[in-house]
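Structure in, sequence out. Go:
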């Protein structure tokens, strides 16, 4: 089934240059905020999850993230000097951990394109939560380089990976990644990650109507009983370059309905607060969950908002802090790190930003049409990470 194309909106404003400055700690209003692991925003949401983008580059050109007509050979990526160094990332990550972060996910672009990424992983793996336990350290990848990197990632201290895989059919997959990359190589990468002990592995499928929704059942058949968790993600209105339309969204309720035509499913409880996916387990003949068959997840970021317990912050590759996936401005932490700010100053600045957080874009989406034209444009997925 061929993809339906709609006109793309080329962003006229480079949001990478639009970060809000963070004043020196002495100039921030309110009392000094120290890190004690109890930080909350205006809606009472804790800070528990940090997504760190380590590169704005990717070797795929998926239409929902980095469409080729925008991110072509003439597209200007960030210069290396603009990127946070591994030492700068680790220093900032330490302050987020001091504020209560328990999980760090490395993203991109494609994070395995960042040279010597294992060095960063080794540094982050040494951090400990406020309770003294190791971080949940994970990475999201398109899997193209995973077969050759899996063991070194594990040896460096990475605990698990999430692999983006939007189809099993090779022709569909090649069309979606738009660089003619074969699905077999991604599957080899998944097997290498399993062999290295990078688990539990999650596989994310972005579902777009008319493009790959016919792959829902084949994907479920393939991964059932594999020990991997397959998750179906609603096609999201992130950024302004992917030509997003509500007609292209396959609601998670429809995904589950399609799956239930072949597989009996039962709802499972969340594993942790702020979990983005609704869990469904494969049922056995008695109607109970069959752990051997495993489970699937659905992420309903368009049709069923989960802002109420969102505990995630996002740090871009050049040190901008974003408080929402759908934000249109970040806060410039790089200038503090490269200036004279002490660790206590960094902790105070992060605390000040988080305590003022009130973002809940997905909850407001129904009353406010997504911006597809003029006005403030949201940051691109390839810049902020998933």
């Amino acid at each position: 089934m061929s993809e339906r194309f709609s006109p793309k909106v080329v962003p006229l404003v480079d949001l990478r240059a639009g970060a809000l400055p963070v004043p020196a700690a002495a100039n921030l209003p309110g009392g000094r905020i120290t890190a004690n692991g109890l930080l909350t925003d205006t809606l009472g949401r804790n800070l528990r999850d940090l997504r760190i983008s380590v590169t704005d580059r990717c070797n795929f050109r998926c239409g929902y993230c980095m469409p080729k007509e925008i991110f072509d050979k003439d597209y200007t990526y960030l210069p290396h000097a603009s990127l946070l160094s591994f030492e700068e990332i680790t220093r900032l990550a330490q302050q987020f951990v001091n504020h209560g972060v328990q999980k760090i996910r490395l993203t991109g672009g494609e994070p395995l394109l960042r040279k010597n990424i294992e060095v960063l992983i080794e540094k982050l793996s040494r951090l400990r939560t406020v309770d003294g336990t190791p971080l949940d350290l994970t990475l999201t990848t398109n899997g193209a380089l995973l077969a050759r990197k899996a063991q070194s990632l594990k040896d460096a201290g990475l605990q698990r990976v999430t692999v983006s895989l939007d189809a099993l059919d090779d022709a569909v997959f090649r069309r979606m990644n738009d660089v003619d990359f074969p699905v077999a190589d991604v599957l080899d990468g998944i097997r290498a990650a399993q062999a290295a002990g990078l688990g539990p592995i999650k596989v994310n499928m972005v579902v777009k109507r008319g493009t790959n929704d016919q792959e829902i059942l084949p994907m479920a058949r393939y991964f059932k009983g594999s020990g991997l968790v397959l998750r179906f993600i609603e096609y999201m209105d992130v950024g302004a370059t992917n030509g997003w339309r509500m007609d292209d969204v396959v609601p998670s309720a429809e995904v589950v309905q399609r799956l239930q035509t072949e597989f009996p499913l039962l709802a499972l409880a969340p594993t942790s607060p702020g979990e983005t996916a609704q869990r469904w387990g494969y049922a056995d003949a008695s109607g109970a969950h069959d752990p051997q068959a495993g489970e699937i997840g659905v992420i309903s970021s368009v049709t069923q908002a989960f802002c109420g317990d969102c505990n995630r912050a996002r740090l871009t590759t050049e040190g901008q802090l974003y408080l929402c996936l759908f934000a249109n401005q970040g806060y410039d932490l790089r200038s503090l790190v490269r200036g004279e700010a002490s660790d206590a100053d960094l902790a105070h600045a992060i605390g000040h930003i988080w305590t003022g957080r009130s973002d809940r874009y997905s909850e407001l989406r129904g009353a406010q049409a997504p911006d597809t034209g003029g006005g403030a444009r949201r940051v691109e997925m390839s810049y902020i990470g998933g």
